[in-house]
Amino acid sequence: MASGRWGVSRWAFAAAGAVAAGVVAAGVYSLASGGTDRRDARELTKRLLQACRDGNVEEVSRLLAEGLEADAENGDSGTGLMFASERGHDSVCRRLLESGADPCRRHTVTGMSSIHFAAAHGRAGALELLLSAAGAVDCRASDGATPLHLAAVAGHAVCARRLLAKGAASAARRRDGATPLHLAAHSDNDDVIREVCECGADVDAAMPLTGVTPLMAAARYDCLRAVAQLLANGAQPNARTRPGRAAGAGAGRTALMIAAQHGAASVVPALLRGGAEADGFASDGLRSALVFAARRGHLSVVRQLARGGATVDARNARGSTALMMSCVDGLRESARELVVLGADPSAAESLTGFTPLMYAAALGHSELCSDLLAYGADPEARQVAGGAKPRGQEGGDGAGGGDRGPGQAAEAAGAGPALLPADLTDGPGRGSGGGAVSSLLGGAAAGGTGRTALMWAAARGHETAVRVLVEAGGADVNATDSGGRSALDLVLARARREAESGGPGGRAAGKASSTPSPAPSPSGGGAREAAARGFAGGASAGRDSGLSLRTQDPEAESGGRHASSSSLSLPPSSPLRSAGAPAEGGRGPPRAVGLAVGPSDSPWAAIEQLLRDRGAILGGDLDSLAT
């Protein structure tokens, strides 16, 4: 019995084990079957999408018949209807739509629908099918673009016409505020512009933040057909960009100014014929289309503007001309073109009295100085606030006038704040730029009306410009300003000031000081105080015939190369020598300004030598000179 019972038990355990194994095996089979089904589904979806790309309507129909969804996607690749719409497979689009595909279903990444894809690629047949099945025409992509936006930027006029016929909004805006007209104008698609305008679109619709209109967008990219079509549909040629933070320095610009700024020469005549104001200025009152073109070096635009009626010597709010601003930037070609077109090379700025030659000289544009002299610029014209005076009519404006900086006298007389010509934030990015002019008209150059171009070049330390004015222009080296100072006086006073302040020329024992040169007061008291203190003592005794100086070549320095040193000899009568020379047989403290041992970055000694070689003398008492 025991053995029998044991035998039954063994049989029972074996049977139970077999059942359990069967159950486990069934579960494993079920899981494997599910994984296989998912893999098969992904494979079928890939085949459907490929068939839609290829336009294989038979394969698409077979896969749909097997139960595959019409809007099946493989990750973020898009649906089959999107692929078929993009490629213009009308029969595939029709079959998918019959199977329930949604024409407004959005792509998971771009937010574009099948209607977007068809419009963007100019698939008019597919677009017609999609629009017939769609519940909405103006479905939006992730950036807010409608299908009409995409048709406009791509230039598909037929698609744009069909979208508009189905009720697409011609004034729809993307998130950045652009309308279909903006995009069509930007892409020079005049046919789309015509279609959209015929449906009543606002031809002068402006971007919300900047105020840019479609005409401005077309002018910016030199789109002549778009400009002509917009003007034919009533676009305002003198509409202006809006002031505000987003517009920045571009506030108050017209389409003509924008075209000039960016060198869009072909649209300039069309804009002028369409009524654009040739001599208008931006909101800052400083920049016209001619100024924009000249300062960017767009000579063809400069010529087009002059031929179209622009006044070559038109003056801005501070009385500056395009030639003056070109001279500020050292733009020789622009200056030459303006003079050829009739610009006056001796005209004076109303607010400061600066002439083009004075700006070129004061900012060290020596080659431009040579050009202006060849064009007939007067080297003896005097800088007088309210307008420079020609030679022989200088007169005096009192000792007090000599201590005012350029523009300060006009401001005191009620002419308003002295706007620097450097307040042009979109300059060409080359030449002296705004910083140099701010320094020129600010502290470093404050000190006198009645100056000539030579005086400004000398006072600013531009040796090459001084040489050009003296040798090529025959400038009078002994002419004096309204304060009685000659070019030599200004050089010596500036050298003394830098020596006392530890400025660019004030080196002690060959070591440069980092202390900036202080700006003189309007009364010139700081300069007179520096002159009264006198130089520090000399570094070494000079020979009887003069002191040997070490100076740097400013041209080599400006070129980024190591400056070479040259030796100059000052005559015993030089104030630089007499003011700083040590007592006979003795040694003094380190010498400053041009008298330092070794190379110096100060050009004052070289300019003094140059002026003295041509007979320059002091115009006033050195101890009372102001800078």
State which percent range the strand residues make up. under 5%
Number of strands: 4
What's the rounded overall pLDDT mean?
A: 75
Provide the spatial order of strands within the biggest beta sheet: 1-2
Reported for the largest beta sheet, the result is: 2 strands, antiparallel
Mind telling me which CATH architecture of the domain at 344-423 and 430-484 this is?
Answer: Alpha Horseshoe
Q: Which structural category do the helix and sheet elements fall into? A: mainly alpha
CATH secondary-structure class of the domain at 344-423 and 430-484 = Mainly Alpha
State the end-to-end distance.
134 Å
- Unreliable spans: 1-36, 388-434, 442-448, 505-600, 622-627
Distinct helical segment count:
30
Describe this structure in words.
It is a single chain. This protein has helices at 2-54, 57-65, 80-87, 90-98, 114-120, 124-133, 147-154, 157-165, 180-186, 190-198, 214-220, 224-232, 255-261, 267-273, 289-296, 299-307, 322-328, 332-340, 356-362, 366-374, 398-401, 408-415, 433-441, 453-459, 463-471, 487-501, 525-533, 554-558, 575-580, 604-613; strands spanning 507-508, 511-512, 547-552, 565-570. It is 46% helix and 3% strand. It is an all-alpha fold and 627 residues long.
